[in-house]
Amino acid sequence: MPKKFSIVYLLLFLISVTTYGQEIQFYKDKANSALSELEQLEALDSVLSKSYKIDPNTFINYSFLYIELAKKLDSFHLAANKAISLQRPLTRVSNDPGKAVTILSSVLASKYKIKDSTLLGKLYLKRGDANFGVDLKASIEDYTLALSHFPEKDSVFAADAYLFRGQANSNLGKFVKAGEDYKKAYIYYENLKDYRYMCFAQQGNITMFSKNGFYEKAKKERDDLVDKLIELNLTEFLSTEYYNQALDYKRIGNDKLELEYLLKADKNHNDSLNSKMFIYIHAKLAEYYSRRGDLKKAIQEIELIEPRYIKVTEDRYAELNYSGAKATYLKAIGDYEKSLTFAKKKLESATDLGYEEEVLDAYLMLSEIYKEMKSYEKSLINKDIYSRIRDSIYNRANANSLAYYQTKFEIQEKEKELVEKNTNIQLLEKDSQTFKNLMFFVSLAFMLIFGIILLYRNRQNLKSKKNLQEEFSQKLLVSQEQERMRISKDLHDGIGQQLLLLKNKLITSGNESAKKMVDTTIDEVRNISRDLHPFALQELGITKAIEHTLTQIDENTVLFISSEIDNIDDIFSPEGEVNIYRIIQESLSNIIKHAKAEATKVLVKKFANNITISIKDNGVGFDFSEKYKDKKSLGLKTLLERTKFLNGQMKVISRKENGTLIEFKFPLQ
Question: How far apart are CA 59 and CA 85, in angstroms?
């Protein structure tokens, strides 16, 4: 009997699908042959209603047509509703959240034509969902805008906005804000009796415990949540909880329990519900086996996820996990070039998503790979970035821990059954409330004192590191000048003298052509020698050396230079004069190379307390912050280091197409 029933059901399903397919084709033909745009819009609506669940590709493609036609007919409320329905299929089925953001933004561009405030809120809510896998900061802005359009009364849409904004804030490390959002979401869901999403809000707080390093507390709360999920028959969410617990065990270095909970997550995972979770779990298993040297199991895990990963390549978190698994495995087998490629992909995805822990892990991985490749300089650079981010996360976590404890009793969800105490227990608690309050404030005071001490020590350590770095930079500048002087002297005394001897022999032989070539070479050697070390400083003094340099540039380039130079001889040490000279020389060199300027003005002014140098040009200008952050651009960084060497200050005023002013102030010694 069961077999007969299953055959009947299968036949009914096939008949239903065939019927729906015929209906969809009928309305497609009707849309193509419609005599008016209004008739076409109605036919497209029928295509969408018939294809929504059984043919997502048709639904997506015809939704684009419907939205554009609705906008053309000035029916923006219709376009808005279809854009809202389209977001999930685009993000979850087509894995194209960027396209979903574009469609929703195109409707919101005419938001003044949409009078329904709740509809506008839904548009922002859906764009926030699409942005969640692309740009977390943009996602938070969208959720905030959504909340401003939803009514004050209990609303499932407002609850969702608070929950999702809490998740985004938590992923960005904004724990206090996340806690406030989770609390509000929990209250909304509780009033709506939506126990499934009450659990999600509770899950958010558990994640924050983990991110703050309270792993024991997170484990206890997660165990309670697992029990509740089983009690409410919400077992489809168990795999997520076991997966998150495995990540916690990885953070504290408990390999045995990390593996145990990853296997639990895999066992409880329903692949039909969430194929991306399958990728996350097996990517972490692949990393685990690679770290342990079990390469056979590691490649088996990677081979499991690769066919699924191809279908979700637009999901940045899936890409992050897949790239991490591949990089770890390839490093374990010694294929460092390919491992490096995947490690960079992981860093890019983690950076785009704003997941600091994954960014940290990616930089450490890059450092280790470069070390194996014997590229020690790149290894140290990545290790240094890793250390800076780790210290930043550690310091922020300490500050967040204090703030989190202070607000914990406000943001922590309260189970309804714990609130409903009987009268006798409540009276007993009331008698001991004064003592509890006293202990709470005493504990809080100790925690604050401990936190302040910890923050002070961290601040002192950071200050010490900064001083050491500046001292190293200054010593590096001095050593560079010494090396330039040595090379310059070798050129002048060695090669220069040899060329003069050669010239004399050529004069004797009467070879005028060769003599001219030697003269040109001698001039080039002298120019290189002068560029390497400004001997004019020793011969003429700093003031004349600056004037001589300006004259040389004015005569030998198309740049017109005007100047006002005060006498600043015998004010700075020899090393200081070299740095002053280099600052002016390098500033002018940057103008010649990059500014496309026609004229520049150089001022060197001596005042009662300081020496001021300003260099202004009428070139194309630039964005200072963008240029300074560019790792390939060393000019501004070098100028700043030379300025620090003289205990001075550097100010840059520049706008694109409006020229640049660089001003230096040095205290009189």
Answer: 10
DSSP 611: E
The single residue listed with the structure tokens 């409006």 is: 658
d(CA 270, CA 277): 9
Torsion of CA 589, 590, 593, 596, to 10 degrees: -120
Q: Which residues contact 541 (CB under 8 A, 6 or more apart)?
A: 569, 570
Element (H, E) at 580: helix 574-590
Task: Please indicate whether residue 450 or residue 518 has the higher confidence score (pLDDT).
Answer: 450
**CATH fourth-level superfamily of 540-667:** Histidine kinase-like ATPase, C-terminal domain (3.30.565.10)
- Report residue 390 as tokens: 């780790």
List phi, psi (to 5°) of 616: -120, 135
Gap between the Cα atoms of 110 and 99, Å rounded: 18
Joined together, the tokens standing for residue 245 give: 């617990």
The owner of tokens 């077992």 is 235
Rounded to whole angstroms, how far apart are CA atoms 483 and 8? 89
Looking at the DSSP bridge assignments, the partners of residue 401 are none
DSSP-derived letter for residue 311 is: G
Rg, Å, the chain Cα set: 34
Collapsing DSSP to helix, strand or coil, 215 comes out as: helix
CB 342 within 8 A of CB 323: yes
Question: Chain-centre distance of CA 164, in angstroms?
Answer: 19
CA distance 314 to 110: 28
Note the pLDDT tens digit of each residue in 595-650.
888 899 999 999 988 999 999 999 988 887 777 777 666 677 788 888 888 889 99
Interhelix angle 195-211/175-192, rounded to 10 degrees, is 160
* Three-state secondary-structure class, residue 452: helix
Grouping H, G, I as helix, E, B as strand and the rest as coil, residue 95 is: coil
Contact 98, 134 (CB under 8 A): yes
- Between CA 564 and CA 560 the distance in angstroms is 14
* Residue 281 to residue 283: CA distance in whole angstroms: 6
Task: Kindly report the number of other CB atoms within 10 A of residue 518's CB atom.
Answer: 19
How many of the other CB atoms lie within 10 Å of CB of 529?
20
Contact by Cβ (8 Å): 667, 647: yes
The bridge status of strand 660-667 relative to strand 560-565 is unpaired
- Listed by start position, the domains of the chain span 22-150, 423-486, 540-667
Give the torsion through C-alpha atoms of 262, 265, 267, 272, to 10 deg: -130
CB 345 within 8 A of CB 163: no
CB-CB neighbours of 599 under 10 Å: 15
- pTM exceeding the 0.70 threshold for the entire prediction: no
Strand order in the sheet with 610-617: 560-565, 599-606, 610-617, 660-667, 649-654
Give the 3-state secondary structure of 216-251: HHHHHHHHHHHHHHHHCCCHHHHHHHHHHHHHHHHH
Helix axis angle for 635-645 and 574-590, nearest 10°, is 160
What are the tens digits of pLDDT across the range 423-444?
444 545 555 666 677 777 887 8
**Domain 22-150: homologous superfamily in CATH:** Tetratricopeptide repeat domain (1.25.40.10)
